[in-house]
Amino acid sequence: MSRKLKKSVAQYKDSFAFNTAINEFYSDKAGEEKHAESAVAARQRAAGALRDVSLPPLFKSVENSEKDKALKKLRDVQINNCIKCGLAKKRNLIVFGEGSSDSDLMFIGEAPGAEEDETGRPFVGRAGQLLTKIIESINLKREYVYIANIIKCRPPGNRNPEQSEIESCSSFLREQIDIIKPKIICTLGKFSSMFIFNEISNSVDGESIEFEKMGVHRGKIYNYKSIKVVPTYHPSYLLRNPSAKKDVWEDMKLIRSMLS
Ligand code: SF4
């Protein structure tokens, strides 16, 4: 088989695997039932968490690296009792972020939803399950990347975060990025992309970038300090617009090529 043909067969297999995984997710009735069960389990776990006021473990492994210690201190000392904005009043648990503090790849979303608020973990609802599938589609495991949001407390009714809330909370995300030092950030959706574009525009020597719409920015690589930024659609958008999955697959392939 020629090299060109081998390459196109490999690409076809990759694309097929991605589509199979994502299609399975969309059509997975059993998955929906599992999801419903997990929501119940999440509430039960949250009830326990409320009683002993304990947050979920930050890491899969023993927390012992300097980065892990710095993240734990940021969460426990600065964020856990934060009342810098009005979202503090109605939150159940803060949603700090989780994953490998040594990861080269960091995903940044927008804000916690109901299940995240109950469990204290990012991206555990239906959109989160899709994100996990997307991560696995490029042969990574969820626990090997780092996942966080701009906002650490749930906006009521899952409304969009307000600018004042983003401004109050964003110093925590900046600190998380500084500690983790990823090589690549994948911004999920409009709000995290806008946040990073603002950071780039306000940095010394940074180019000025205005967010237009995701279709304009996805598939491109931006530079934030020494980090490469790849914007893509938020998994919630993908749930509502399955036709965008081909674009997300292209963006994931781009990220995978940058990691290797
Ligand atoms: S959203 Fe952020 S700034 Fe607002 S209370 Fe929560 S942790 Fe503090």
Structure description:
The chain is of the alpha/beta class. The protein has one domain: Uracil-DNA Glycosylase, subunit E. It is built from ten helices and six strands; from the N terminus they run αααββααβαβααββαα. It has helices at 3-27, 29-52, 66-79, 114-119, 126-137, 163-180, 190-202, 214-217, 235-240, 245-259; strands at 98-99, 105-109, 146-149, 184-188, 222-224, 227-232. Strands 1-3-2-4-6-5 form a six-stranded mixed β-sheet, sandwiched between helices. Helix 1 packs antiparallel against helix 5 and helix 3 packs antiparallel against helix 6. It is globular and about 45 Å long. The protein binds iron/sulfur cluster.
Task: Tell me which CATH architecture applies here.
Answer: 3-Layer(aba) Sandwich
Category from helices, strands and their pairing: alpha/beta
Number of domains: 1
Instruction: Please state the average pLDDT score.
Output: 85
The rounded distance between the terminal residues' Cα atoms is 25 Å
What top-tier CATH class fits best? Alpha Beta
Radius of gyration of CA atoms, rounded to a whole number: 18 Å
Assign the CATH superfamily. Answer: Uracil-DNA glycosylase-like domain
Unreliable sequence segments: 29-37, 39-54
In the CATH hierarchy, the third-tier topology is known as: Uracil-DNA Glycosylase, subunit E
Proportion of beta-strand residues: 5-15%
- Chemical compounds bound to the protein: iron/sulfur cluster
Number of strands: 6
**Shape field:** globular
Helix content: 40-55%
Q: Enumerate the strands of the largest sheet in spatial order, edge to edge or round the barrel.
A: 1-3-2-4-6-5
Largest sheet: 6 strands, mixed
